[in-house]
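Work Package 4 report. The design task specified in the project plan requires that, given a folded chain encoded as structure tokens, an amino acid be chosen for each position. We show below one input record used in the internal validation round.
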């Protein structure tokens, strides 16, 4: 109760501060709108292991949003290219504690000793940015797609003594990511009602174990105050930016990251004796890793690029995985190196970019657990900032994952080598 009250109070104060900063400026207030949102959700069940222990999956959430839109009079070429999207700063309280878990002796993951209580997913408070792209807008309706990235704090995590069957969340401080689809109906020139479907994901990026992650989806409803909408609708074609000239570039990336090994989690949960001090422990070592990526990218528009490339990864943990397999009496192949081919897509807005990648392993040998559980493909998502004075050099954070399960988190530096003279981009 205290966590929920404090979360809602902090959220309200945060958004009142934003309103206070904008209400005195008659010009800027037209850029800003506000939104209050309610969501009903269910924890998604993604495999047979999770299906066997999830008891209750219901959640709900409340969110407050401060929405900002660039106006046609701002002469923003990126805003024009996206159809005048909405940037939002969001605080969201998520009531997740009703979601419960209990692993019995028939759990398919391995041999465990059942406990005499039910574990719960913790409530969470998230602070994130949202980017909503309109796909259709008219005098009455607006339909949009949104992408969300930020951080979250969970009131509960895995605990050997008190929350042992919660294998979804292994840390209090988490990454938040998600997206959704919505439709807004205009009630008046400044007010609207919105409904849609929203998905969100919280995890620690494999910096702690366990890290199955919580994935929640459900319907949302909100009331929207957007005083800028009629102005944008009427004047969205008044400003026409200069033509964008397409070009190719080679994007070179180097990353340094950290991770814990899911193999450690599997071993201490199911392979050691019940009286072993490490049985179902929550303490795991961190290991370093690094990567190098080289991508041939085609900047086909001001706001997007697409391409393909290679991804080489090195992991310092391969010897540790080999030692664990030997303890289990398992023999496999091991190498610190892996090679992958990747398809890439990047979205741009001025100096900020969102990088997406889908890769296929060409070479990878990381032991028995990887052979049995990891798919042959993986995905990457990253946020980058281009430093104008360094000729396009970017810094950012990327997470590599197998579907919704993070493999590692890394700090990435990249540099584009342009194959032809890059034109001026407004």
């Amino acid at each position: 109760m205290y966590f929920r009250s404090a979360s809602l109070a902090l959220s309200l104060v945060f958004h009142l501060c934003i309103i206070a900063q904008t209400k005195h400026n008659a010009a800027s207030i037209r850029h800003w709108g506000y939104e209050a949102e309610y969501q009903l959700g269910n924890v998604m069940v993604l495999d047979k292991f999770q299906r066997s222990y999830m008891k209750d999956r219901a959640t709900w959430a409340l969110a407050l949003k401060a929405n900002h839109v660039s106006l046609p009079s701002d002469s923003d070429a990126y805003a024009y290219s996206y159809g005048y999207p909405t940037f939002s700063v969001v605080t969201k309280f998520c009531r997740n504690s009703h979601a419960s878990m209990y692993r019995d002796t028939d759990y398919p993951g391995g041999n465990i000793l059942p406990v005499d209580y039910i574990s719960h997913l913790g409530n969470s408070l998230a602070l994130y940015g949202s980017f909503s792209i309109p796909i259709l807008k008219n005098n009455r309706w607006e339909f949009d797609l949104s992408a969300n990235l930020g951080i979250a704090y969970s009131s509960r995590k895995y605990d050997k003594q008190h929350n042992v069957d919660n294998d979804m969340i292994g840390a209090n401080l988490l990454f938040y990511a998600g997206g959704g689809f919505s439709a807004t109906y205009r009630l008046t020139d400044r007010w609207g009602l919105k409904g849609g479907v929203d998905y969100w994901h919280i995890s620690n990026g494999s910096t702690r174990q366990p890290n199955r992650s919580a994935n929640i989806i459900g319907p949302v409803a909100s009331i929207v105050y957007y005083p800028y909408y009629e102005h944008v609708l009427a004047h969205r074609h008044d400003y026409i930016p200069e033509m964008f000239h397409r070009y190719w570039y080679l994007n070179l990336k180097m990353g340094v990251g950290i991770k814990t090994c899911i193999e450690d989690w599997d071993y201490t949960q199911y392979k050691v004796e019940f009286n072993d001090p490490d049985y179902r422990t929550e303490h795991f070592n961190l290991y370093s890793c690094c990567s190098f990526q080289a991508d041939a990218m085609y900047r086909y528009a001001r706001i997007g690029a697409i391409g393909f490339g290679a991804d080489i990864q090195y992991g310092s943990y391969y010897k540790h995985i080999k030692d664990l397999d030997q303890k289990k009496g398992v023999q496999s192949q091991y190498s610190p190196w892996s090679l992958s081919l990747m398809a890439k897509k990047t979205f741009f807005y001025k100096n900020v970019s969102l990088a997406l990648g889908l890769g296929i392993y060409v070479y990878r040998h990381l032991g028995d657990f990887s052979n049995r559980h990891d798919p042959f493909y993986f995905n990457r998502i990253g946020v980058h900032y281009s430093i104008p004075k360094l000729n396009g050099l970017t810094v950012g954070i990327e997470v590599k994952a197998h579907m919704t399960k993070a493999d590692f988190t890394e700090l990435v530096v990249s540099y584009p080598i342009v194959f032809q003279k890059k034109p001026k981009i407004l």
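The longest strand covers residues 334-349. Validation will be extended to a larger panel in the next phase.
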